[in-house]
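Hi D.,

Good news: the full-assembly prediction came through. Inputs first.
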Amino acid sequence: MPSIKTILVWAISFAPSVLSAAVPVKRAISSVVSGTPPGFAGGATGGGNAKPVYPTTIADLKKYLTSKDPQVIVISGQFNFAGSEGTQTLKACNTYQCTPEKGGQAMLNTLNGCTTATYDVKIDTAAYQGINVQSNKTLVGKNGATLNGKGLRLVGVSNIIIQNIKITNLNPKYVWGGDAITMSGTHDIWIDHVETSLTGRQHYSFGQTANHWITISNSFINGKTTNSASCDGHTYWGEEMVGVDDSITWYKNYVYMTNGRSPALSGGTLLHAVNNVFDDNTGHLIEGGDANARGIFEGNVFKNIKTTVDAGFKGKLFGATSANAASCKTALGRNCQANAYTSAPALNRADTAFFTQFNGFSIVGAATADSIAAAVPKSAGNTL
Ligand SMILES: *[C@@H]1O[C@H](CO)[C@@H](O)[C@H](O)[C@H]1NC(C)=O
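Then the structure:
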């Protein structure tokens, strides 16, 4: 077998047109990662084949995630951040249907959003802001790896793989109390087999600076919560996809017990939602007020959903059926798989004018909705 160096010399000598300074040399994905990134994040390699490190304390875990070096970080069991940075007193107000004491949420006055009387509340500081993960990182969990009381912030960074962890307990009583995973100004990010639960705010928050080539797969958006803005044990704060020019593959995720933003598809986001199970929503799934948001939904299962598309939705949507499946060829190079519905209104929108915008993206395959209906809820989350 020729060495990597030989291949590079060959590539540079004989195929200069396919290599440019802008395209970094591809590293291999570490063997501690299961599988390879499906869909838009197909180029993500994370920390490549750096020698794995095995932090056992929250301080070491933070150190590796925030260092400048490429890292392959393997964690096992609980990482208990709750209380590790103390508490702080902030102003909050009651703007939702019921108070935290009655299973509701209060809103922190973080963005001066309170229009009613404010009062002091004590929140957990560690949960209030996530760890600022740096570029070229792989984080893989084993043995039920859990970040208790700490989320992850990916801001202005690239090439990150996060697999098989759970993030939970982020000041669930308080809106703005903590996001599980934040992305803003990122590219080449693969989040796989992650469970998020008991968040104060978003399970996934895409900031307004563009996020390119993102895949979230096999993940469990567990909206079952002790404190719900809708006062019914379902979270409102699912997935906030509002970047100016985001591209997101949303694949084989289990979106369970939500009340809104599942997703909020807004800004200029291009979404490919494939083989997900959306189950038990008491408000609405898809919402968003921007005409530039676009999404193809295919091979998904919608089950026990009150409203599939919010009446105020302004973007472009394509919901695949057996009758319109063939029109996906111009977008995906193949037919779509039809969505399936049980006690859920159909996503009966078939905009196709945006299909050319899928050109150049790596497109994940789709299975039939029936074939994934039982499997996705079982495998989603940190089940590897
Ligand atoms: C990440 O790795 C790539 C490829 O080795 C390198 O070009 C880039 O500078 C790294 N990014 C950072 C922020 O270190």
